[in-house]
Amino acid sequence: MGVRADLAAHFRDGLDATTHLVVADVRELQLEAPTVAAVQIVRTTVERAPEQPLGAFLMSFDIWVIATTTDPTRADDALDDALDEVLQLIDAHPWMTWGTAEREVHAAGYAGYKITAQVAAEGRK
To answer: Between 115 and which of 8, 63, 91, 120 could a Cys-Cys bridge form, CB atoms 3.0 to 4.6 Å apart?
Structure first.
């Protein structure tokens, strides 16, 4: 299993599947499901970890927390709760950190927060 799939499993284990959709691929985003929020995981960069042995990487991810409604009031309520839950799961993860969570409009047109996160990982042999 790759790092992105590992992160998706971490979020799926920690979030209520009846209210949260976890998507580990930018091409998979389908919001027809009756969920309150979606979490989308997109790897953006991979770089060699400085001063670490060969095979150690730093990977950056955009983790989107997306309200699955276009109603602004309902979206804000859903995002407040979902963002808090996702940030707690990131903080609980042993090799993931985050820097900022910025309010943005997702490419699909839904309100959301884009969290910039970084993961330290070893390459696959």
So the answer is: 63
